[in-house]
Write a structure and sequence with these properties.
Blueprint: H1 4-9, E1 14-15, H2 19-36, H3 43-53, E2 56-57, E3 61-63, E4 67-69, E5 75-77, E6 81-83, E7 87-90, E8 95-97, E9 102-103, E10 108-110, E11 112-113, H4 118-122, E12 125-128, E13 131-133, E14 138-139, E15 144-145, E16 150-151, E17 156-157, E18 162-163, E19 171-174, E20 179-183, H5 186-206
Parallel strand pairs: 2-5, 3-6, 4-7, 5-8, 6-9, 7-10, 8-13, 9-14, 10-15, 13-16, 14-17, 15-18, 17-19
Antiparallel strand pairs: 1-12, 11-12, 19-20
Helix pairs in contact: 2-3
Family: Belongs to the transferase hexapeptide repeat family.
Protein name: Acetyltransferase
EC number: 2.3.1.-
Length: 207
């Protein structure tokens, strides 16, 4: 017979109040409490805590406290990740974040779902659907990603968006519900490369 944790990770209905899951959640809350009480002089310690909390982590990860999650053990993060203040990752299902991803403040990644039928919902059963985020993705502040969503690489999600459906690679999307506004083009690349070159020319002149 499967445990409630196994059911949860297989994205089936499960009971969240199971004793094993309560212990896992307790561990997560202990680590995040300590993390959220660290100071700016404890950057290395913060990294140690995050590596202990998450399933997998790349190099060069930085998260501003406070941060909250359900378990942490279902979260994988690639290299060069940044998250601003007050992010919440509810990981009853897998959350997978690629490389070179940046989150503004108050980003919510929410994998839990609840039955539509009130009687079943009130019985305490719930489920999860994994969230996948590609490489080189940038979220503005107050973005919420709903259960089961995949967001493609090189994509930008505008502030305040509620992402209810998959978003492909190489687009700018925003809104509630989040919709594609336009693709990211070669003209965008050219424009920002020119801005970058001008910046470094100024810096080199000053030096």
């Amino acid at each position: 017979m499967r445990t409630e944790k196994e059911k949860m990770l297989q994205e089936d209905l499960y009971v969240a109040g199971d004793s094993e899951l309560r212990e896992d959640a307790k561990r997560s809350r202990q680590i995040t409490r300590i993390f959220n009480q660290t100071t700016e002089e404890q950057i290395d310690y913060r990294m140690t805590l995050l590596k202990d909390l998450f399933k997998e982590t790349g190099e060069n990860i930085y998260m501003e406290p406070p941060f909250r999650c359900d378990y942490g053990s279902n979260i994988s993060i690639g290299n060069n990740f940044y998250a601003n203040f007050d992010c919440i990752f509810l990981d009853v299902a897998e959350i997978k974040i690629g490389e070179n991803v940046m989150f503004g403040p108050k980003v919510n990644l929410l994998t839990p779902g609840h039955p539509i039928d009130a009687e079943v919902r009130n019985s305490g059963l719930e489920f999860g659907r994994k969230i996948t985020i590609g490489d080189n993705v940038w979220f503005g502040g107050n973005v919420t990603v709903n259960p089961g969503v995949t967001i493609g690489s090189n994509t930008i999600i505008g502030s305040g968006s509620v992402v209810t459906k998959n978003i492909p690679d190489n687009v700018i999307a925003a809104g509630n519900p989040c919709r594609i506004i336009r693709p990211i083009t070669d003209e965008d690349k050219k424009h920002w490369k020119e801005k970058q070159e001008a910046y470094w020319n100024e810096v080199n002149q000053e030096n």
